[in-house]
Structures
1.
Amino acid sequence: MAKNIVSNARIAELLGEMAELLELAGENYFHFRAYQKAAQIVAGLTASAAAMTDEELTEVRGIGKSLAAHVAAIAATGAFPELEALRKKLPPGLPELLKVQGIGAKRAKLLYEKSGVDSVAKLKELSEKGELEKLDGFGKKSEENILSAVKFREQAGDKRMLHWEARVIAEELLKLAASLGLEKAAYAGSLRRGRETVGDIDILAVGRPDGTATEKFSKLDRVEKVLSVGPTKCSVILKDGIQCDLRVVPANLYGSAMNYFTGSKEHNVALRGLALKMGLTLSEYGLCKLADKEHKKPVASRTEEEIYKALGLAYIPPELRENRGEIELARKRALPELIELSDVKGDIHNHTAHSDGAATMEEMLARAAALGFKWYFCGDHSKPLAIANGMDYKKYEETRAELAALSKKFPKLKTGRSIEMEIMKDGSLGFSAKEAAKVDFVVGSVHSAFKMPEAEMTDRIIKALPAVDAIAHPSGRLLGKREGFTFDYGKVFEAAARAGTAFEINGQPDRQDLTDVTARKAKEAGVKILLSTDAHAAAQLDYMSMAVTVARRAGLTKSDVLNTFSYEELLTWIKRRRAKR
DNA sequence: GCCGTTTTCGGCCCGACTGTTTTCAGTCG
């Protein structure tokens, strides 16, 4: 395999940019859509697209001869000549304009051609001078809205919100449903699908579509700005800095509306295509016969389950709705039975005040017991991570004795003492091999020298594998803050499968790493997955549900995940694994 | 640019809301 092979993420990025530029250039809708779709498909592949043959690529739905050739060219040279040619043709600031609310490709093109607007700064200038409203198709109102959108962007940037933060806000809003006169409400959109970050919060509610609920919603205290409000739909920007859309439907359309509002867009497009082939049409107003233009007698609309059934599919959980092959699996009744939070019996990677946690061992145990965990490995950092007060083996033994004594207060909770072990630059550990072998559960982590070359990082992790039971937050990324390090996932997972070492999905809202894509790849390589809270406070043990969400997106089942094991099964797994080395 | 249980050509998902318009295009999800 070639060195420094072009990543799927990079290929997807280039294809996505191509789609954007083609749209700006006024290309045929379906032409640029094909690039857009291909970008998403490549981003979701577990195999390396750059390493695939032409035949393998064209076998992927949505990638034909032409796109396969582009991918191959990018893989071979790292360059995409057609894209570069287009970049030269269009002003570089034009794609930026699309990020302003209310500006699409047509308006961006018109702004550039009529007024030479090729940057957000120039757009702002034009609207401030009152020149924008003089353009065809624009008016006073458009000018105001665009100026306000530009200012909002300057302030908020285009950052997406972490899944967990958005989930907390959404759940607070849902509590207000009754006071808005709504029968029931739930969040939909990318939040329901469990995406790691979300761009807006979508709320679907059952109620009378007479505009009272949307009107009240638009006047809530936490609303910063109203974007639109109609009888059934309302879009606002919250003071929390995120857009929130409310949609109100009657109870009999809840299923079709939920399906439509959950997306993903690509999943919905594929479902609608499937419906069309069956002489049906799918929208938020139900799955209807083509002739039933008014949606008078839906074939299915009340629940999502009946819609999937009527399309000849098994029910597809929201986390899988990304058009990454789930529809085909649903047709063949071959969808994985996804892990649920209730399958999880305990947590292994977490911290107490003995290293850098906020809570005592007892507080952590109490919370674990309250959550209904069957077992709990109480963790802390190893030396030499001084910033986190990492401990040596002597202190490990002392605190293990303390834990054993404390455990008597929680008779229903089986316990163990775990260590988040430093993986040094050369792949050795923070403890000696002898010491590490005596630790109840060793979770290995890289916390230093993130910038080492990919090949060295690959060797570093592979070298550490036999001595650690699991690898924690494998890429070291912090969403929105730090990119993390890279290594050859294929090679490392292969070695991990041989060593029997598990890989972690970390439930910290800004980590969520392994990702949905890399966790799927780990599973395919035969690597077990560990779900962790990495809790640094008792309340953070709730992050287990974040880790489960990522696991579900990765298509993991109960048997793929260590946390579903009984205490005895887990001990056996650890023993067998260590016997291998 | 992709794709095929009518098809290798001619389709390609559907609707709400807004603003600028006198019937609709653009944007968004």
Note: The mean pLDDT of chain A is 90.
2.
Amino acid sequence: MSKGSNHPDTKQSILDAAEFLFATQGFRGASLRAITGKASVNVAAVNYHFGSKKSLLKAVIKRRILPLNQLRRQRLEEVRERAKKKGRTPDAKDILYAFIQPTLQFRETEPGAKEFVTFIGRSFADPDNTVRKVFIQFIKPMFQLLQEAMHEALPQNTHNQIFWRLQFTMGALFHTMHICSDVTMEQLNISALDAEALTELILPYVTAGMKAK
Amino acid sequence: MSKGSNHPDTKQSILDAAEFLFATQGFRGASLRAITGKASVNVAAVNYHFGSKKSLLKAVIKRRILPLNQLRRQRLEEVRERAKKKGRTPDAKDILYAFIQPTLQFRETEPGAKEFVTFIGRSFADPDNTVRKVFIQFIKPMFQLLQEAMHEALPQNTHNQIFWRLQFTMGALFHTMHICSDVTMEQLNISALDAEALTELILPYVTAGMKAK
DNA sequence: GTCTATACGATGATAGAC
DNA sequence: GTCTATCATCGTATAGAC
């Protein structure tokens, strides 16, 4: 029997290993050799299946973020529809919940998702331009949707104000997401919290922030 | 005359170049060759003057953060003293202003500080453990001071609540700091704001967040 | 088609001779 | 202080085995 061949699905193994290592070591810090080593496949397998390290990054992000974005979009639409039926403007808190809850809940849905959440929490601040670009590409349409919905909820606020306050909200959320990585929790001496507890902590904060003054 | 010798201060030149490149390319992305090239000194000068790349990082951070932390500490003390004299508890907004205003203002104090602010905004989320560790080491005592002051301002809130809300605040602030880098501003199509405008935007948000419910 | 072994050229940090 | 050598490690390309 050979060393590590006959994988049920090589691509999947690579994606899983890459997701974990990107999250813990960063895009630059995770070498293809480390990734393929963890996945027990050959070094060249990445280039065969994905073409390049950059394309692998895109695949890692895409696999998780497309379903996540769809869920967030659907939740947002529900909030807007419900408000419309009542002839009212949507509530800021409901909009924020529709975006934040699926994000934090996602950690607990399937194995590996935890690492992914840490990773995207860091991506926006990643020093590597490649990572930031790919990430912004996926978050941008979601952010614009959020902006529109929030403008309906807070019509008295200027576009500029809503834009920046949503940025602050993203900052708080991303920070929470990457702080919840095992390594960082240890460095800061925090005990673990589940998605529900985290949501209950962050939601009043960001809602009050958005509605301030 | 030789190519690049006879620097007024080699160490200073290296620190400046490293600060800029760490901020724009990240710790891993900025090679010693790029740093010494930008500083017009020999490749080996870093190892001669600082010992290693890691020690250079510490020096870069230390140079700016020690005076910044002292200023923040002093501002915080002033707020607490002023409240004590009046026989009242300090106001949450004043505490947050004492921490945030010097941070954002710092960008405009001296050349190079702008890059530094971007850099520390990113450091907390840096995938490289080295960077995170050094950064946490410098921010931790400041955070604890903030926590104490905030507990005086909001005695009805639990320690856990104050801890997390301050984390959200840090998230919003850090995100703002690294978003204000020239590259990211371009990627997001935002126009530049000065420290005063930014402070006026973020302060109501984080204050309302801290006081929520 | 899928996967492995191996090699290539570039670039990384650092150390020793001067 | 500088110059140069060293040695590890990077992403990627290729040739061939199953």
Note: Residues 2, 5, 10, 41-45, 48 of chain B lie near DNA strand D (CB under 10 Å from a C1').
